[in-house]
Design goal:
Strand order of the largest sheet: 1-3-2-4-5
Strand content: 25-35%
Mean pLDDT: 94
CATH topology: Glutaredoxin
Number of domains: 1
Structural class: alpha/beta
């Protein structure tokens, strides 16, 4: 899993297949989902990245992705294929992630 910063999220999202996880530093469910992701074998060619929305410096990200303002449940996930968001959902679960990824790999 890649911890994304204000300077590298754009490059990450333009990858062939990228799974973006949004969370906050004080979110227990986000930490549980992170641990689950770290302990699971991710398919080759899929990048997993995490942005903590309560960290400073993500103004450009939030402006470029105005849907983030409507996120009210964390963790929140989005699958990007070549820079285009294809799927988004709230919560964790490897089975849910794998089902969604299977459409793109």
């Amino acid at each position: 899993m890649e911890m994304l910063g204000p300077k590298d999220w754009e490059d990450f999202l333009s990858a062939p297949i990228a799974v973006l996880m949004l969370g906050k530093t004080d979110c227990a469910a986000c930490e549980e989902w992170t641990v689950e992701l770290l302990n699971h074998e991710i398919p080759e060619g899929v990048r997993i990245g995490k942005i903590l929305l309560d960290k400073p410096g993500y103004g450009r990200f939030k402006i470029a992705h105005d849907w983030v303002a409507n996120v009210d449940v964390l963790p929140f996930n989005a699958i990007y294929v070549n820079g285009e968001m294809k799927k988004q959902w709230a919560g964790g679960g490897m089975e849910r992630l794998q089902t969604r990824l299977n459409r793109f790999i």
